[in-house]
Predict the structure.
Amino acid sequence: MFVHPLTAVISCPATYCVWRQWRQPRHSCCKNQLSFFTTRNLFTSFIKLSVLHKSDFQRGLHLFSSLMEHTHKEPPLKRRKSIEEKDSVKAKVTTKQEKESREIGPAWLHNVTAIPPQSGKVQSNLEKTGIKTELRRQWEDLTDMCSCGPQADKRIGVQPFDFSVMCYNVLSQDLLLSNPYLYKHCNPLILDWHYRFSNIIKEFEEHSADIMCLQEVQEDHYTKQIKPSLEYLGYHCEYKRRTGHKLDGCVVAFKHSRFKLLSTHPIEFYRRGIPLLDRDNVGLVVMLQPVKELGLGHICVATTHLLYNPRRGDIKLAQLALLLAEISRVSRLDDGTTCPVVLCGDFNSVPASPLYTFIKDNKLEYAGMPTGKVSGQEENHRGHRFLTVPIWPSSLGISQLCQFEGQSNEPHEEQSKLQSGASSNGFSKPTIEHRLKLASVYSHFLKESGHPEITTCHSRTAMTVDYIFYSPAQKEKSDRTKCSVAQERGLQLLARLALVSEAELREVNGLPNRHYSSDHLPLIARFRLPS
Ligand code: KL2
């Protein structure tokens, strides 16, 4: 049954067994309007979980009841916990200030009461809620948008290469425990790491994407559980942990059967001596070659999780510039063109934000912009500082075209200026630009209802902050002159797994819930690399 030796998995046999119980046939993921609806035998699975993890489970239950007796005591803030302790759920202790601060989030989540866990009644508690917890997500066929029907590829002897990409912030257990006020609407049992891990792996297997870009992957969970499970499913995994004391990081995993790894490029945004880049966020860029279709060239896949702080758009833009510079460098081909790029992740910025507009429109006039406006996470920018020229210091080595100094993809006017001397090096301009042509897989408004799409949702917010960007094939270009770089090769977007509205998430008690174990939804797209 096991095709690979499972030495590493042996360290977590219980969770692995639960996950194996839930194995189901693969979905064919590119059918027009195919309804994606999952069924899980939660009862059996949960019983298994409670039996197999008896000690963890009892410890969890014991903690709840004991803590619940002390609900008036203030909990120590961000108490350092042992990893084992962190994996079990803590009952949430409510202080007056915390209660007040919670009232900021979507009103509909405040009325939902978590069910107090009681020994022996765990499953019935989960079942008794009567709250629907599964979302209906449709696969949307987009082939008419990119004129890529069966006849579209005519190069004799070379088949087009179709592949799927998932982008998913899986919510690290450490961050879940550090920000308990975001999960106050949840039954504490569903926040247990073992429970969440089983659900997350199940989702990976159901969607079976050829490439997975993950964020908030906690290093110990990655090493002991996530990586061995993904390897068992046929994936090669690359990991970059955040710098400093942060426990989580980004993963790019891809199926051995579909891609070969050409190179991997982890990026740390932290730069010693540059105050603007004093945060621990990271990115990960890999170059992949489709196997079996060697004539198709390479693709560049990048992922990141940008800084959360809604007030520090200046830092987010500098982190993004570093990532774009690395993508430009790595994806550059010998003839000066760029191979197709997939850039996805959690950008902690909404679709109406200047940061998002910068990615899509290649240019941003930033001078005088409040730093809190850059990501659009918050409405109120009072008291924020303003972006000044230059946006990042020249000592960073990144030009205002988001390229490493000295690297030029084109005989561009700006580049010749850059080389002609310090006074005209572009750093006096109030704008930044980049030379990658990127489109978004999602349109950010639902096709049927026109309501905003939601990618993340918890007690405080419901918005889009996750994206899959890609280099669109020439056919999809509406404005061919917009990007002056010759970028002949691109991807055709075939399909995407539709997102949902805030109202639909409201019906399933928000995120995470019994079925979806992160406070984000996975984004999934299917692309064609034309022949
Ligand atoms: O918004 V996120 O969740 O993309 O899902 O990215 C950050 C936040 C993540 C990494 O820093 O941790 C969450 N309030 C709300 N969420 C926070 C906070 C906070 N103060 N700090 C971190 N996160």
About this structure: Residues 313-331 form the longest helix (19 residues). Residues 169, 175, 179, 182, 308, 346, 348, 456, 465, 519 surround adenosine-2',3'-vanadate (CB under 6 Å). The first strand starts at residue 35 and ends at 36. The chain has a mean pLDDT of 78.
